[in-house]
Structures are given as structure tokens and as C-alpha cells.
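User: Show me a protein chain along with its predicted structure.
Assistant: Here is one chain, sequence first, then C-alpha cells.
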Amino acid sequence: MMMVSDSLMRRALVVVVMVLVLWVGECKPQKGRKRRGHNTTAMLARHRMDLYWRLLKYVFCAVVAPAIVGFVYSLLRDPAVPQLLREVSALLKRRFTKTLSSTDQQSSPRKTTNNKS
């Protein structure tokens, strides 16, 4: 079995994610029918805006996607993450089920006391 370095795997993962994001961004649903119109300036302006948003999307993906992929990759390789997840899930379980086991008298915030003077 051939050993692949971590940096090569990270680069391959980034490339695959970028290709998938760009491919999904290019897919547009097909419209049912085309309108007939002579408003070519509006169509040209719409096309320019589509190009502008596509450029912004590509730049955003090029800047943010590698950072997110690197963060997720480092979480997957960290040996402490499973233990942290177990502790957090146990804490949440205790916190959310604490009120289920108590009776109405125990969980009510007001306690009535009979102070007779």
C-alpha cells in the first residue's frame, strides 16, 4: 500500500471541494418557457450582474473554503475531539434531562412557607 503524505491529502481534498462548489454554482434550474421581449439592455444588465455574483462566489470560495477544510481536517486528526464530544454530550444530556426527573413541587421556583408570627 502506498503511503500518501498529509499535505498531499489536504491539497487533494481542497481541490475536490473547490471543484464541487464551482460545479454546483454553475448548475441552474431550467425555466419552463422563454419570454419574448425586446428589452436587451435589461437582459445585458442582468447578465453582467450574474457575472459579478459568480466572480464574488468564486473569490469567496477561494478564500474561505481552504480555511474551513483545514479546520475540519485538523479536528478529524485531533485525538482529543472524541473525548470532548463525549463530555459535551453528557453535559447536555444531564442539563436537559434534569427537569424531567423532578416533580412539580421540586422544580417550581417559588416555595411557599408558612411563617406564622
